[in-house]
Every structure is written in C-alpha cells, then in structure tokens.
Amino acid sequence: MMPINFKYKKLSEKELLELSNSKYTNESPKSRYSDSLYYKRNQFQQRQQNEYDTLGSVRRVTEEAKDKCEQMKKKVKKILIEEELQQGKQKLLNDKIKFMETIKARKNKDQELLQKLKQQYYERQQQMTQSVKTLRDQLSLEIKRSKENLLQSKKQDQEEIMKQRKENEQMIKQFSGTVIEKKKEQINRVKNDKEISYQTKCKFFEQKKLNWQRINQEKRREYQTEQTWILEEINELEKEEQKALSRYNSLQQSRLEKQSFLSTFMGAKKSFQQEGFSSRNSIENSPIRTIHDSGEKQKFVNA
C-alpha cells in the first residue's frame, strides 16, 4: 500500500458550506466538477487528519496508561518494601522482648538459687557455730568437773595422809623400829597408789582434751570445705551471668548492625524514589511526535 501524504489546507465549516453551495450557482459544468473534486479531496483530507488526531490521542492515552502502570508498580514495590521493613522491625522487637524475658527469668532463677545457697550457708554456719559452742561448753563443764573432782580427791588424799601421818606418829610412839618400817612401807605404797591414780586421771583428761581438739579440727575442716563449695557455686553463677551478658551484648551489636543496614536501605530507597520522580518528569515534559505517514502508523499499531 502506497503511503498517502496530503498537505492541503484544512477548510473551515463556512468554506465547506460555500463550496457545497457554489455547485448550484456555477453555470459551467466543468467548474462544478472541479468544485466537487476539490470538495471531495478536502473531505478525504479532513477524514485523514481526524484519523491522525485519533491515533495521536490513542498514543497519548497509551503513554499515560504506561506511566500510570509504572507508577502503580513503584507504589506496590514501595508498599512491599515497607511491609518487609515493618515485619523485620517487628521481628527484631519480638526477638528483643523474648531475649529480655529469657535474661530476666534466668537472672531471677540465679538470684533465687543464690539466695537459697546463701540461706543454706547461713544455716550451716549457724549449726556449726552452735555445735562448736555446745562441744566447747560440754568440754569446759567436763574439765571444770574433773578439776573439782581432782581437787576434791587431792584434798581427801591430803586429809587421809595427814590422818595416816597422825596415826603413824602414834604408832611410832607405841611400836618398835620393825613395826615402824612396815608402816612406812605401807604409807609409801598408799602414797604411790594415790600418785598413780592421780597420773592416770591426768592422762585421761589429757586424752579427752586431745579428742576434743581433733573433733574441733574436723568440724573446722568440714566448715571450710562447705564454705569453699558455696564460693565455687557463687563463682559459677557469676560466670553464667557474664556469659548471659555477653550474649546480650552480641545481640545488641547485631541489632545495631541491622538498624544501620535499614538506614542505608532507606537512604537508597529515597534516592531511588527521587531518581524515579525525575525520570517521570522528563517523560511527561517530552514533546509528542506527530505521525505523518501510514508506515509509522502501521509500526505503532503493530507495537
């Protein structure tokens, strides 16, 4: 199909009406035929121009529809990005709340365990103190009683010795030297027995004293062992608390990194929006090219 390119003057309605009426006033058939051909040619040119205007308006509407589609795509993309950001923020907030609740529960549990261990340590210390005090009182009472018994026995022995001495003095006066010697031997034997009994009692009380010292040392070692165990437990709890704090600090660092990433992403998004707005303005401000031939029309229709 050959391209059609008419470049005749576009007639107004008044001129067209004058042309249509002139065929009735002209007397020459040739002039009437020329006027009719000119009228038809102008009508064809008018229809062609109307078609070109229609195609131009269709093109403008199509470009506007494309711009609106691009804008809707950008808006949808922006909404999706904002939803993802909101979901990420909510997830970070939920993770933070969950971690804080876990830390708080663990801290409360550690505090309860530490308080329980302190209470056990205090009760054990009170029991040890009470038992040591009881043993000390018992030992002091026994030592005092033993001393009193020793003093009493010593006093009785001295009284018996004095009594025996008086009897010996009387016997010395009554009997001869042989009887005196036998009596001296008897007195020495009694004296030795008393001394042996006294030494035995002293050894017994020394042994009791050593036993008490040994029991006291064992109780003290047991008390120190218990105290060492409690201190180790307290150190373990403090180590667990330090680990929990380090985990919390690492999560805080991760949260800061995510916030930095979000701020960077928001800056990129803002710059992207500004670039999209400037490109849209450049498209809207570009001149609309007029279609002059059917070849370009055919290309546009095919596109």
List keywords for this structure.
303 residues; mainly alpha; 0% strand; disordered N terminus; disordered C terminus; coiled coil
Overview of this structure, please?
This protein is mainly alpha-helical and 303 residues long. It has one domain (13-282). 91% of the residues lie in helices and 0% in strands. The chain is built from 4 helices and no strands. The protein starts with 12 loop residues before the first helix and ends with a helix. Keywords: Coiled coil.
Q: What's the structural blueprint in terms of helices and strands?
A:
Layout: H1 13-25, H2 29-174, H3 177-284, H4 294-302
Helix pairs in contact: 1-2, 2-3
In short:
The chain is mostly helical and 303 residues long. Helices cover 91% and strands 0% of the residues.
Largest sheet: none
Secondary-structure element pattern, one letter each: HHHH
- N- to C-terminal distance: 19 Å
What's the count of strands?
0
What structural category characterises the helix and strand content?
A: mainly alpha
Q: What does the overall shape look like?
A: rod-shaped
Region (Disordered): 273-303
Keywords: Coiled coil
Biased composition (Basic and acidic residues): 290-303
Coiled coil: 62-174, 220-254
